[in-house]
Amino acid sequence: MTRQDIMNKTIEIVYECVPEIEGQTLEESTVINTDTGIDSMGFTLIICRLEAAFDVKIPDRQWKKLYTLGDVVTAIEKRLK
Amino acid sequence: MRFASFEELLRHFAQTTPEAPALCFEAHGEKQTRSFAAFYGDVCARAAVLEKKSFTCLGVLCDGSFACVTEIFAAVKAGKQLVLLNEDCTPEQLAAADADALWGDAELTEELSPALTGGVTDGRGKLLFFTSGTTAKNKAVVLTEQSLCSSAFNGGALLPLKNDDVLLCMLPLDHVFGFVCGLLWGLSCGACVALGRGPRHYFDDCTFFAPTALSAVPLLLGFLLQKNLLGSTLRLVLIGAGDCPQAIPGALKAKGVRVSFGYGLTETSSGVALSLGDDPYAMTVCPDDEITLDADGEILIKADTCMMQGYYKDKTATAAVLQNGVLRTGDLGAFDAQGLLHIRGRKKEILVLRDGTKIFLPEYEAALQPLLPGRDFAVTEQSGAPVLMIFGEESERETLTRALEGHMRTLPRGQQLKTIRFVNSPLPRTATGKIKRWSIQQKEEAT
Questions:
Q1: Which of A47, B47, B147, B185 lies at a CB distance of 3.0 to 4.6 Å from B77, suitable for a disulfide?
Q2: Which domains does chain B have, with CATH numbers?
Q3: Beta partners for residue B377, in sequence order
Q4: Residues within 8 A of B (CB atoms), A 4-63 only
Q5: Backbone phi, then psi, for B424, in 5-degree steps?
Q6: What is the pLDDT of residues A11-27, one digit of tens each?
Q7: Measured between CB atoms, does B223 come within 8 Å of chain A?
Q8: pTM for the model
Q9: What is the rounded distance in angstroms from the CA atom of residue B136 to the CA atom of residue B94?
């Protein structure tokens, strides 16, 4: 799976979890809080869905370090078998 | 019933309702329960081990597990001072609390162990909770098992749970609201406390544990409601630790769930007032507590049984807020004709987020100052989240976002700026240059 594949799937899941931002352009550099307005509960939902979709586990302590969508993609990429 | 210690509480129910479930939790994918008698036995056995250890102050990295809860009660029974911490705790916090031993996640424990100190000589019965908020200056509040038990008694006196109730504990135990209203309230009523499984299970904990009661912060509750995750067994929700939009109690009532709001501080071992009637914003003062209002409306609390001993090793900070047993809260309130308390806002420059976290705005802004040199800005609140208000133009958004990125990455997610709002005129300030926060907030609310 390429990084772009992961990014595309991530964007799809973000839209599913937070339908109110659907249509908004999401890029690797998109800052999750300020650019999308996703709150911490919405973020938790997204990470849990991503973990299930990619069959990976991102340690809770790493969550707060995921600042941009690119950070999320990197965290998944690192853990993909 | 009022208890003077955790051991007295557990022993009482171990003797009177030994087979009743005290705790319910997940182990190996299965739901398990531990009776009061069995749990009291676990605590006594572990305390016997801890008594032989030479350490004097145990830092507990709270993960909400059964082992964590057992360790807390056992360490207190063994006469150790406890400091309750979360995974974001800093070495400075650990050192400030004089912890000389750590319990919790092995990797984190190893990482933090260089910060351990020489311990204490007079820590028996003391539990230290850090005030929630930005980490730089949050203070360790010295509570006791007696003050925490008294607070739980107050809650149970106004909102009793029965022994067939299941109270779901989804809040962190290092936060006094989570510890008292998520755990002790249930146990002191002889009810079963279901230990939530952390953020990954916010989505299915209510289905898994089928709780009848829940303590929650507005942010979590709003999410559970929005996603319809509260389950069908719930009959009572206690909301605390942050401003709550009116839609939340309304939606809960529509589901037939009783709603109560709690008001309290870490310094008062959690709640000092709870709402009991139809209006969740109108609160009855708890039995042990006295609340008066200062001339400017500031809430003053006298709570002999629940009051903190002080801020740990900080007499100056203690004396600034606690005089003759009366705590100056920095919160503004009013009493209605029925004598019920209504919270009106904050006097201090503090923003209380919907997850219960407090942000000390001048400190938060001072950290942004070097990143936004010469700019006219302030941090304010929108929908329970911090927002940067800055005199400037929309075209600067990208540049400013990048300028702030490094600092934002160091903050817990809930404390990161939710958005940047541009204003086309300088921010209102007093003659001495202080930001007129209320003026900004009122303008925001009007738009």
A1: B47
A2: 6-346 (3.40.50.12780), 357-446 (3.30.300.30)
A3: B390
A4: 31, 33-35, 37, 39-45, 48, 51, 60-61, 63
A5: -100, 15
A6: 999 888 888 888 888 88
A7: yes
A8: 0.83
A9: 13
